Amino acid sequence: MSSRATNKLSQEKIHQLLTAVGSKPTEDAAQIEATEYNWRQPHCFDHNQLNKLNEFTKNLAIVVAEKFTDFCHGEFDVTVVSSTQHFAAELLGQASDSGQNDYYLAFGTDQEHPCGLISIPTQTAFIWTTQLLGDTKSEEDSRVDLSQLEESLLLDIASAIVEAFSGIYGDCDFQPAQSIVRKLWPLELKGTEELCKIAFQVKESHQENSSEAYIVILCGKLEPVVGKAEQAVDRFSAEDVSKAIFSHMQQMSVSITAQLASAALTLEEIVSLEVDDILLLDKRIDEPVELTVNGRMALWGWPAKSAGKYAVVITGDPILQ
User: Which one, 84, 116, 149, 150, has least CB within 10 Å?
Assistant: First the structure.
């Protein structure tokens, strides 16, 4: 192909070419390494912010373990399982679909407008209150509700977790709500808010089983912890981005097929073909051949040869159809 054509690609022609190529994967697509990206989840934090969030949650786990040790008079290990980002509608939908009866303690700098909560599943609530009471009975409990005393103890340990979170957070002083609520989230959300969910497990050092709970907070409230995202896009103008995209697109490999002509035969005629038979095609010898891109006609040309190989002389501009 002539190198002269490289710089003649206009945006319109590139658009026509991409339309002709379509979206079919290439044969070696399976070998391409790609990072999974879920468009249904928010992506508030960049790589550096996620690293800072990871360090923050590690420190949080240490302080929460100390709180459990002080409350329950035993050795406890706390592990952060995950830190994920969600739209509020997703988490609210999950809670509604599963019929969860979790216990919730809201927190924030303004108790009338909380920005986060501690979510404690029912089974975890029974385990924690049993540990706080120093009861040696099995943590398996057939009851569905906590007693008034147990709910008061659960409020104490949940408030301690908020205190631990606030203690390593920074200048902001989060205050827990005055009471535990159940079933309904104590946050006023529209569904489009972006939330960070920090899942953690609590386990007595000598025990195998662990209990899990969650901290949910508005992503924007974590900025003092993770810092501001780098606005990399602001360093490039729209024109620079457009030029870079078209520069890469011009280097894309596209397969072109030259089709001399075609013929329609019955199965009987095909089976009857023998060596030296002449097959009549549907084009005259003075008609140009078609060049197709992904099955769509792209160019007209004349058959030729060059350096001992078949070739096609292009006779005009692209006619993508």
Answer: 149
User: Do residue 242 and residue 222 come from a single domain?
Assistant: no
Locate tokens 């159809």: which residue?
321
Residues forming beta bridges with residue 116, ordered by sequence position? 107, 217
Which one, of 185, 118, 174, 180, lies nearest residue 154 by Cα? 180
| Cβ neighbours, 10 Å, residue 197 | 16
What's the number of domains the chain is made of?
Answer: 2
What does the pLDDT average to over 18-29? 56
Whether residue 280 sits in one domain with residue 156 = no
Instruction: Return the HEC string of the chain.
Output: CCHHHHHHCCHHHHHHHHHHHCCCCCCCHHHCCCCCCCCCCCCCCCHHHHHHHHHHHHHHHHHHHHHHHHHHCCCEEEEEEEEEEEEHHHHHHHHHHHCCCCEEEEEECCCCCCCEEEEECHHHHHHHHHHHHCCCCCCCCCCCCCCHHHHHHHHHHHHHHHHHHHHHHCCCCCEECCCCEECCCCCCCCCCCEEEEEEEEEEECCCCCCEEEEEEEEHHHHHHHHCCCCCHHHHCCHHHHHHHHHHHHCCCCCCEEEECCCCCCCHHHHHHCCCCCCCCCCCCCCCCEEEEECCEEEEEEEEEEECCEEEEEECCCCCCC
- CATH number of the domain bearing residue 97: 3.40.1550.10
Residue 185 and residue 245 share a domain = no
The pTM for the full model equals: 0.62
- Alpha carbons 159 and 208: distance in angstroms, whole number: 26
Least confident of 37-41, 152-156, 212-216, 311-315: 37-41
Does 196 lie in the same domain as 75? yes
Q: pLDDT of 116-155, one tens digit each?
A: 999 999 999 999 999 888 765 544 555 678 889 999 999 9
For the chain, the straight-line distance linking the first and the last C-alpha, in angstroms and rounded, comes to 22
Contact between 25 and 65 under an 8 Å Cβ cutoff? The reply is no
